[in-house]
Protein 1
Amino acid sequence: MNIEDCLADFQIPQYLHYLDSAATSLIPEPVIVSMNEYERQYRANVGRGMHRLTRVATQRYQDAHDRVSGFIEGQEGTTVFTRNTTEAINMVAAGLEWEPGDRIVTTVMEHHSNLLPWLRLRQKGVEVITIRPDSEGTFDTGSFDEAITADTKLVAISHVSNALGTVQPVREIASLCKEYGSYFLIDGAQSVPHFPVNVQNIGCDFMCFSGHKMLGPTGTGILWMKEEILSPFMVGGGTVDDVDIEGGTAEGYVLTEGYRRYEAGTPHISGAIGLSQAVKYLENLGMDDIFRHEQKLTERLLAGLAGIDKVNVYGPQDIKNRIGVVSFTIDRIHPHEVAYLLDERASILVRSGDHCCIPLMRYLGLENGTVRASLYLYNTLEEVDLLIQTVEEIARMV
């Protein structure tokens, strides 16, 4: 399957130029078909019964876990389905045992979902250290070496910035965490959809990402953990092997093993099946080919925006250290107005504002945030050229 051939599987690009995939990607027809097949042909709960429909649903649900695990080379760990990256990160924050004096190291670059759960732990006496990047959003690993101490229980960073597109040196940071005995959590929401990710090679303890940013349905997310060290966020449903209300165990129940202990209640079954199909779709295209395609688009976009007077581009200029998430501003025009004009004039859909990164925007001195164009496999060079042309026309208005 070639990337050029996949456009037929998406409806929206046939009449709009969708450049907002960092928020939510589009969904291809085979994913929709797989979800509808579940609803129409074998809709039943999973792990709850022996009739033919529940057996099929349970197997497909298990297959979905296996496929997603394989996608990130996480077969040796536990892959838990969540609603999104936010829930996955909160499960780690709630599932670890915290004591006053524990230390968390994170960065000012983080999406609120990888910052607020840690800030809230200050109520338990946990110290939160936030590292500052350079003007392009990159870090010297030495700053992590200085911040991580023997008291550091967890280091939490985004693999790729959702605002600047910067790719962070996660392997080097993982090595530091191992040296100090700290857990390492990666927010992979913007990396897993765009280039090959191997959790074994990285050496992280937790990898969190979302299905809706990688051609899957909304309401699907993933928490991968190297070891099952977390207390479950919720209990009930199929999370147990036994319940003893007479006090035979301290808790009154015995948790089961594997992902089931972390997935209380009826899950988003059709969503899991759709996510599995989305992963299959990405595998058929080839993550290396997807990455090369996006790099070509990103290089064209960066070069084009750089040549426009009154346009300011943020993040790395070298495409070797970024993905196709490109933030920019136009002097004296509010980012929201730019986004509105792009839609009205050329049917180009981008995001504007702080991108759930208020501390980063404040750090960069961007009171109103930025305009963000985010590229994916279904975008074309013609769309990039149209964006550049339209931004230049808007900049002439100043």
Note: Residues 142 and 308 are 36 Å apart (CA to CA).
Protein 2
Amino acid sequence: MSGDRMVLRELAFDAASNLQALRGRTVLALVGIAIGTAAVIAMLHIGYNARKETMQQFDVLGIDLVNVTPRSDGMKNAVIPLDAARDVAAVGVGVIAAAPFILTGTSVRIGRSSLQANLVAATDGIYSLAKAEIATGRRTCDLDGFAPFAVLGAVLTKDIAASTGRPVRIGDQISLDGQVMTVIGILASVYSNMVLGLDLDRSVVIPYAAARRLIPSPQITNVAARIDIANDDTIVSEKISEYFGARMRGGGVSVQTARQLIATLDQQMRIYGLLLLAIGTVSLVVGGVGVMNVMLMSVMERRREIGIRLAIGARRHDIRVMFLIEALLLSAAGSAIGTVLGTLTGWLFARSSGWTFAMAPVALPLGAGMALVVGLFFGSYPAARAARLDPIVALRSD
């Protein structure tokens, strides 16, 4: 057993020396394998971290959220009545809390600084549904009525402070599309809510009734709701659609639940993953062809050496193993480089997206597995060709 190990070790050293001698061709083959491996490994890391980050957001915000939006029937605009939106939690359709809101864009001006932001005119239930906490001051509420009060998101507050050169304080006045509003609160940072389409960090929240100060004819754009998690969200969605359809003057509503969004995101991630996997596979095939080319050239250039080995007693199996080891070393080096590059790419993508990077569990095993597969598959033919050489013909070659 120890003798076999010594033979394999000698073959490995010999294979490394031969690959080093080929230099240019070896580097080209390494680049092909490294690119293919990096594409696959990066895909694994990006997909894993994107899903982890998405699930983390849903863990914080809840998987029981529902977003209801008006849907026109083509004849006239769909309008959700305010009373219907407020009462949906009390009619037994599976909704336990609801908050209508108007979402649009606005221009925030304070002093000489002007910034673009989201305007959210909402009833006071929006804070609990969006899991938004107040860092300073207080929330807007329904009792504020038409009062010119505003609550600023965390990122918007920092942007205003950077523009004006001083921190935003409670009681400061800002101008929203020409209307002067008083800052009564600042929100703590909160995840962007994919279900509700809300990015409160970059938003100004005002009382629902105060929307008339800024919008000539304000209409509900969304109804945020929370459903009983024990209910089937498909059935609840149908009941919500029927409820609003019977109370709207035109059109109906579209209902999207958190679970439906998760399923959609999973499907999209799977599609993107398959695309990246296809790109990586093509690159690996190109790299594998490079390995085969290097091995074939090595066989051609070393025919005399192969003939001598066969003539002095080497078995054809030994010749085959010798070239397979070279192919495995070449593919292992390329896969190792590709695994490092793919991991670095995944880390950079996560960092640029503001995510916390985590290693995909299957990345390292897959990197090693690809090295084995590429080496064995694309190195088999050159190794078999070397093993079939006639020693007499090989010894006559120059």
Note: The chain is about 55% helix and 20% strand.
